[in-house]
């Protein structure tokens, strides 16, 4: 799967007065109290559109060091107040919050985008779930100092997402996943973690703290973006990142108004497709394009049955 990934850790702190948040970090605090060293929230944006990538994001909030937690020195205080489910926020507020999150010294974040061809190959749900894995792994790498942050190569990001045992082992990671579907890679890691813990208990009888360092756990949360600060922050970063990508595609495809409809199948968008045809950035396995559009050998979108349609020769 082709991935574009970006990760960030330890930037300058954001400034300015911000609205009070209604969410809090109770889930993250409870996970750390239970012994989890890294607590991460993951979410995605863009499963429904007919065009453009699906973007997954991961966020880990570092506890404030003593004396740096602000008023009252609350070491579990939200780094950027006002963060909530991105769907409830107006675009300017999402942009403001995203910039504050990306710049905050206590926020380690990563985004991963799967393009239309990857979506067509693997299906949209799998692309989104695998993206969560890639983003969470990038956060672990950045937080452990094994990544300098910035933009990662597609190849290295995909490799980390596909088989990242060395990434999570020794990290003591707990991941909160928005929704009710668990990324397949997370399921496998939990099975490995449980087997390792059972082996420790039977063979060496090591204490809980030492065993937890090599453990991994993921938990799905329905409406997690309204219950878990880290998930809400990830939802903001995923949405803002995807919107920015669609604005870039707006320049690539004049007349398609990608910045306006952002890939969603609005009546105006569908009218443009009927007039101009599908672009290479459309998801050709999505209705109503499925069966009418395909890709030639170079990956270009072409009408089914055209001279460039490679299906006739297969």
UniProtKB/TrEMBL annotation:
InterPro entries: RNase_HII, RNase_HII/HIII, RNase_HII/HIII_dom, RNaseH-like_sf, RNaseH_sf. This is Ribonuclease. Manganese or magnesium. Binds 1 divalent metal ion per monomer in the absence of substrate. May bind a second metal ion after substrate binding. It is found in: Cytoplasm. Belongs to the RNase HII family. GO terms for biological process: DNA replication, removal of RNA primer; mismatch repair. Residues 37-298 form the RNase H type-2 domain. One of its GO terms (cellular component) is cytoplasm. Endonuclease that specifically degrades the RNA of RNA-DNA hybrids. PANTHER family: RIBONUCLEASE (PTHR10954:SF23), RIBONUCLEASE H2 SUBUNIT A (PTHR10954). Gene3D superfamilies: Ribonuclease H-like superfamily/Ribonuclease H (3.30.420.10). It catalyses: Endonucleolytic cleavage to 5'-phosphomonoester. It comes from Cafeteria roenbergensis. The keyword Cell division does not apply. NCBIfam families: PRK00015.1-3. Its cofactor is Mn(2+); Mg(2+). Its main location: cytoplasm. Residues 190-211, 290-314 are annotated as: Disordered. Keywords: Cytoplasm, Endonuclease, Hydrolase, Manganese, Metal-binding, Nuclease.
């Amino acid at each position: 799967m082709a991935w574009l990934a970006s990760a960030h850790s330890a930037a300058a702190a954001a400034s300015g007065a911000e609205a009070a948040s209604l969410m809090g970090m109770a889930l993250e605090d409870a996970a750390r109290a239970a012994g989890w060293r890294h607590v991460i929230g993951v979410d995605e944006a863009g499963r429904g559109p007919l065009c453009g990538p699906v973007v997954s994001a991961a966020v880990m909030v570092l506890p404030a060091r003593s004396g740096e937690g602000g008023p009252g020195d609350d070491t579990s205080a939200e780094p950027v107040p006002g963060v909530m489910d991105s769907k409830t926020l107006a675009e300017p507020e999402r942009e403001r919050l995203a910039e504050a999150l990306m710049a905050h010294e206590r926020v380690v974040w990563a985004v991963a985008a799967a393009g239309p061809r990857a979506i067509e190959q693997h299906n949209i749900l799998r692309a989104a779930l695998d993206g969560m894995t890639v983003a969470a792994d990038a956060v672990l790498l950045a937080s452990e100092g094994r990544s300098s942050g910035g933009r990662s190569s597609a190849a290295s990001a995909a490799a980390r997402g596909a088989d990242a045992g060395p990434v999570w082992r020794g990290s003591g990671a707990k991941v909160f996943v928005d929704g009710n579907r668990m990324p397949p890679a997370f399921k496998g890691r939990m099975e490995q973690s449980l087997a390792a813990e059972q082996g420790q208990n039977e063979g060496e009888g090591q204490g809980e703290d030492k065993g937890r360092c090599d453990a991994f756990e993921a938990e799905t949360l329905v409406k997690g973006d309204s219950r878990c600060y880290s998930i809400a922050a990830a939802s903001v970063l995923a949405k803002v990142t995807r919107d920015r990508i669609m604005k870039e595609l707006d320049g690539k495809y004049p007349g398609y108004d990608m910045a306006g409809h952002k890939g969603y199948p609005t009546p105006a968008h569908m009218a443009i497709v009927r007039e101009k045809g599908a672009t290479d950035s459309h998801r050709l396995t999505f209705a109503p394009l499925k069966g009418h559009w395909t890709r030639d050998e170079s990956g270009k979108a072409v009408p089914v049955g055209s001279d460039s349609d490679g299906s006739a020769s297969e």
